[in-house]
Amino acid sequence: MPHATASWLVDNTALSFTQIADFCGLHILEVQAMADDLAGAKYTGRDPVHSGELTHEEIERGQNDSSYQLRMQKAPVDVSRTKGPRYTPVSKRQDKPDGIAWILRNHPEISDAQIGRLIGTTRNTINAIRERSHWNIQNIQPKDPVTLGLCSQRELDAAVAKAAKRAPAPAEGEETPVTQESITLDKRDDKEKLIEELRREREEAAKAASEAAQEAEAEAWLTAKRAAEANPDPGDL
What we know:
Order of helices and strands: HHHHHHHHHHH
Largest sheet: none
Structural class: mainly alpha
Radius of gyration: 27 Å
Helix content: 55-70%
Shape: elongated
Distance between the termini: 72 Å
Oligomer: single chain
Strand content: under 5%
Number of strands: 0
């Protein structure tokens, strides 16, 4: 969850936006938007120290040197679930209706059974929200269940992909409808392409700087050698 991790680092450390963007694999403008509260979605901060991806010492090094690049201590661990109903912490159970409403609005192709497994809810609750007969429908605001911490992005993507496989193929000559999933994937691809392009530019710039330094060093050595040959030391004669 790079955005949630970046949000936590912005709120709890003095690291530069560049350091946070590099560590989380985001564009620096995304981190800037989080700091300015301009991001389209509000992310719940995720503590990378608690998960073991960073240490307080590593953060201190970064805060003391703005050019220091943070090193991940260990890769994020995917927690595998056992069979049975999903357990949701009491503090997050009130967010379930918001997550259900978001899925119903953005991914109507996902079945009720899938939503039940993702969110840990019942068909009755899902139907009540869909039919707007839920007792608290006036206060329900669709919110990304990943951001709410009700499921992981990988689980949501898997559910969307599974639902897409069940969807009937478009008839011959019929255009494939534009769905929220296709829009999301396009945006994700664009962001990944931008990040890859920026990384490639940084690598090319570093390579060019290294080559320029080597050429300058060789030129300085050659100039010194020529000067020594033109003006030999009398002691060497």
